[in-house]
């Protein structure tokens, strides 16, 4: 993780600072450039997904929309089980 954060910092995407309450802890915060980069990357992914969805029939889009609650439940179950494992 330290190497990843160092590379992000070198790229100007994050700033690191020691935690004032605990010198062993390092706080990481996005820079303005980091937020802009994140926004651009999200926009590119959203555009790609919109293009893929546009290639589907209305019935296929309806089927995906109907499946969203089940996919959300699966994602939440995975996240919840991961949090439970981390708390053990």
Summary of the model, kept short:
The chain has three helices and two strands. The protein has 88 residues and is mainly alpha-helical. The two termini are 22 Å apart.
Features:
about 90 residues; mainly alpha; Arc Repressor Mutant, subunit A; two-stranded antiparallel ribbon; 3 helices; about 70% helix; about 10% strand
Describe the structure.
It is built from three helices and two strands; from the N terminus they run αββαα. It is mostly helical and 88 residues long. The chain folds into two domains: 1-55, Arc Repressor Mutant, subunit A, CATH 1.10.10; 57-88. It has a two-stranded antiparallel sheet. A hairpin with a 7-residue loop joins strand 1 (14-18) and strand 2. The chain is flat, with a radius of gyration of 19 Å. It starts with a helix and ends with a helix. 0% of the residues are buried.
Radius of gyration: 19 Å
- By CATH reckoning, the class of the largest domain would read Mainly Alpha
Main beta-sheet strand count, sense and barrel state: 2 strands, antiparallel
Task: Give the DSSP E fraction (strand runs of 2 or more residues).
Answer: 5-15%
Q: What strand order characterises the main sheet?
A: 1-2
Q: What CATH architecture of the largest domain do you see?
A: Orthogonal Bundle
Shape field: flat
The overall pLDDT, averaged over residues, is 92
For the secondary structure, the number of strands is 2
> Helix amount, in percent?
55-70%
Uncertain stretches = none
- Count of alpha/pi helices: 3
Number of domains: 2
Order of helices and strands: HEEHH
CATH topology of the largest domain: Arc Repressor Mutant, subunit A
| Structure classification | mainly alpha
Q: What is the rounded distance between the termini?
A: 22 Å
- What is the CATH H-level superfamily of the largest domain? Winged helix-like DNA-binding domain superfamily/Winged helix DNA-binding domain
